[in-house]
Specification:
single chain, Immunoglobulin-like, Barwin-like endoglucanases, six-stranded mixed β-sheet, 2 helices, 18 strands, about 40% strand, disordered N terminus
Amino acid sequence: MHNLHPRLARAVALTTLIALGWTLALAAPSNSIYLPLISTASSAKQNPLHSGQATYYNEADGTGNCAFDAIPGDLMVAAISHVDYSDPQPAAYCGAYVELTGPKGTITVRIVDKCPDIGCAAGHLDLSPSAFDMIADHNLGRVPITWRVVSPSLSGPIVYHFKDSNNPYWMAVQIRNHRNPIAKFEYQNSKGVWVSVDRVDYNYFVEPTYVGPGPYTFRVTDSYGNVLVDSGVAGGDNISRSGAAQFPAGP
């Protein structure tokens, strides 16, 4: 695997709720926290079940192509096949949680890396050794599995991480500590218009034009259509800023 390359920001000026076709807007005081419940998914359904194989790689430490920091105390991580990694957009699965079942049991892991072309077909998950040992005998090395995306309970809100070299003329933001896969990231420009930012292969949303020094207003949409809006987010160089809420559970 190849590796590529904290202060609470006052947030949530507006939280929008959409449920069952009804819309409700809540203007929130700067220190209030709301849990948006905007969902296009039915809670009665589950995410699609995938089939594939699992292997393990000794370098798994929480880092990888998704450009997250190492988490030595949490090695329940995996690399996903290069085929799935960028479906439907670059780094689409980065930070997502998947529940996988192997010969010995079921575990939940977080996707942090991309498994290379050789030996990693669609549906493949390359695990940390400790995670692999929980679903299969270590000496097998490669076993059949099934897996689906899930929404585990997380501590705290989503986090915006500004990449090193971030500046008013080049903004790169990574979403961390998110319960569900991230589908879209936007910022509000000086005219009040929402601007969608493209996600690149190393899991940052990169805006290569002038965005100003901040503070910023961000809007994040997960893969189920849930939306979080945070305002007053201070920028910075290689620094993390907490949002004000976490996504609700998916199906």
